[in-house]
Design a protein that fits this description.
The chain is an alpha+beta fold. The chain has one domain: Alpha-Beta Complex (Glycinamide Ribonucleotide Synthetase, Chain A, domain 4). Helix content is 24%, strand content 25%. The protein has a 3-stranded antiparallel β-sheet. It has a two-stranded antiparallel ribbon with strand order 3-4.
Length: 119
């Protein structure tokens, strides 16, 4: 928030930014029927807590009676930070594979082009 405040206020010179040199890679978990007719209401299980290298962003989710459920097409995005693309890809797919909901689907090729360029 502070960064945006200073940007709108014209005082970015007052902000000390810290850059993370790690690679970020995100895998979107989509609902059954996405993109044409994504199903809503499926119970979502095993979403891990945020760690130093991984966070799961919620998009098409809702809480119903204390349970996390799908509410849109692009349900979650598993985002991982790692020292290189290969490690980020491996870790992102490890986290994604643990998350469960009926009809979950996600691309299996995220990061492949970058690996082709960077080994």
């Amino acid at each position: 928030f502070e960064l945006f405040w200073h940007a709108t206020d014209g005082t970015l010179d007052k902000v000390d930014l810290v850059w993370d040199r790690r690679v970020a890679l995100g895998v979107v978990l989509a609902a059954h029927g996405y993109p044409e007719a994504p199903r809503k209401g499926d119970r979502i299980a095993n979403v891990p807590a945020e760690t130093a290298d991984a966070v799961v962003f919620h998009a098409g989710t809702t809480m119903e009676s204390g349970e996390l459920r799908t509410s849109g097409g692009r349900v979650l995005c598993v985002t991982v930070l790692a020292d290189n693309v290969r490690l980020a890809q491996q870790r992102a797919y490890e986290v994604a594979a643990r998350i469960q909901f009926d009809g979950v689907q996600y691309r299996r090729d995220i990061g492949h082009r970058a690996l082709g360029r960077n080994g």
